[in-house]
Amino acid sequence: MAKARTQFICQNCGTAHNRWVGKCEGCGEWNTVVEEDPMGGIGSGPGKVPKKGRPVALTALSGEIEEAPRIHTGIGELDRATGGGFVRGSAVLIGGDPGIGKSTLLMQAAAALSRRGHRIIYVSGEEAVAQVRLRAQRLHAAETDVLLAAETNVEDILATIGEGKRPDLVIIDSIQTLWSDTADAAPGTVTQVRTGVQAMIRFAKQTGAAMVLVGHVTKEGQIAGPRVVEHMVDAVLYFEGDRGHHYRILRTVKNRFGPTDEIGVFEMSDKGLREVSNPSELFLGERNSKSPGAAVFAGMEGTRPVLVEVQALVAPTSLGTPRRAVLGWDSARLSMILAVLEAHCGVRLGQHDVYLNVAGGYRISEPAADLAVASALVSSLAGLALPADCVYFGEVSLSGAIRPVAHTAQRLKEAEKLGFSQAVLPAGSADLPKGAGSRWSEIDSLPDLVARIAGSKRALKREDEDV
Ligand code: TYD
Ligand code: MG
């Protein structure tokens, strides 16, 4: 008889090893490899008795398409991030740092759905019933018909939610606490988490209930164990935010039933999460427009324009190698902008420390922010404040050219709505609104931008001399 072989699985990335190793060969992490029984989980190879296959009906690509049946929470920002509400029979993973507000968000969603007459079951594996009740009271959710269970065993959970009328939505908080009798591994290991999640997904597909799974993110930015879980579920949302700030962003990274570039914005208050339907106002709230080094970027998040301030500080360095510190943007991208400024615009930054910060703890991923970053850098170096009513957007290429970006009209419309009357944008932008004319300055290279900002200095000097 073949010997039952144990495997050593990395808890960080899921790579299987034949023997124990200190450093995972997959992700390079130390001390993440744990011995597990491969017979318990998914991907554990063929069962003991090979089953004879049964042919399934093949079908054509064309045919009737049904709109995915959704349940709307009525919480606009949440519905936006999920692409219009939770889809029946689907599984959604909501990841985030511990303490960011996942349980709060889901308790509020559960209460909202329950008020709309849906049957909601909230399974808490982390907190006792009393704790969850306390939170529900604080969120004014206690008077709703949400059903609560404090349980971590997969079989018991399945028996509980399978009993009685089918639930419309089940919330499992969190997948790291799930454990099954069938998997021979410690709770929280990859095998246990995978087994538990697989069982929950199967329940959702079989019954048509929507399943929401909560997963904690580890320091490395992955849900513990569960990179493996991301591909099993239908949608993955991350709840992120900065502890120092009150606002939280629900970001879609995968969605089989909707767009993946949407965000929902919330603000944490003492009464739970509040929707923020106009994020620009929030991010521009504490703006001090008179100081040098600040430029407003007109960005896009999915279908929604978001205005946010980029702040730069360029100061002479006392170190051999100057410091480059970035918050909220890609540091490789900053190095690129600095190199282009040096090479094509004669802006010498080699003897300067450079600090870049995106206001409000917000994180920008768009290359369109290049122009705003460059403006903030030059403004700080020159000690000249940029016009307070001007927005910037455009991508910078290595040659120093400014490339057009998408959604010009939408960005400008949002800027106008918030009282910005000028914009610096790439020449040749496709959908530039007609008639607005002179207030939009189209530039086609980075030296143009530097000349514009330096030119404002000359204008200022002349004003001074005139006086
Ligand atoms: P929680 O939802 O428990 O986080 P997670 O489930 O992601 O671990 O949120 C915990 C934090 O939110 C905690 O630090 C307290 C804060 N909070 C508020 O500020 N207001 C509230 O109304 C609630 C319920 C929580
Ligand atoms: Mg929680």
From TrEMBL:
Residues that, per the record, bind ATP: G96, D97, P98, G99, I100, G101, K102, S103
CDD domains, sorted: RadA_SMS_N
PROSITE patterns: RECA_2
Region spans: Lon-protease-like: 353-467
Pfam families (UniProt xref): AAA_25, ChlI, Zn_ribbon_LapB
Keyword Lipid biosynthesis in annotation: no
Superkingdom assignment: Bacteria
Gene3D superfamilies: 3.30.230.10, P-loop containing nucleotide triphosphate hydrolases
Transmembrane intervals: none
Annotated InterPro entries: AAA+_ATPase (IPR003593), DNA_repair_RadA (IPR004504), P-loop_NTPase (IPR027417), RecA_ATP-bd (IPR020588), Ribosomal_Su5_D2-typ_SF (IPR020568), Ribsml_uS5_D2-typ_fold_subgr (IPR014721), Rubredoxin_2 (IPR041166)
RecA family profile domain boundaries: 67-217
Keywords: ATP-binding, DNA damage, DNA repair, DNA-binding, Hydrolase, Metal-binding, Nucleotide-binding, Stress response, Zinc, Zinc-finger
Residue ranges annotated as motif RadA KNRFG motif: 254-258
Family that this chain belongs to: Belongs to the RecA family. RadA subfamily.
Domain commentary: The middle region has homology to RecA with ATPase motifs including the RadA KNRFG motif, while the C-terminus is homologous to Lon protease.
Role of this protein: DNA-dependent ATPase involved in processing of recombination intermediates, plays a role in repairing DNA breaks. Stimulates the branch migration of RecA-mediated strand transfer reactions, allowing the 3' invading strand to extend heteroduplex DNA faster. Binds ssDNA in the presence of ADP but not other nucleotides, has ATPase activity that is stimulated by ssDNA and various branched DNA structures, but inhibited by SSB. Does not have RecA's homology-searching function. Plays a role in repairing double-strand DNA breaks, probably involving stabilizing or processing branched DNA or blocked replication forks.
Protein name: DNA repair protein RadA
Originating organism: Shinella curvata
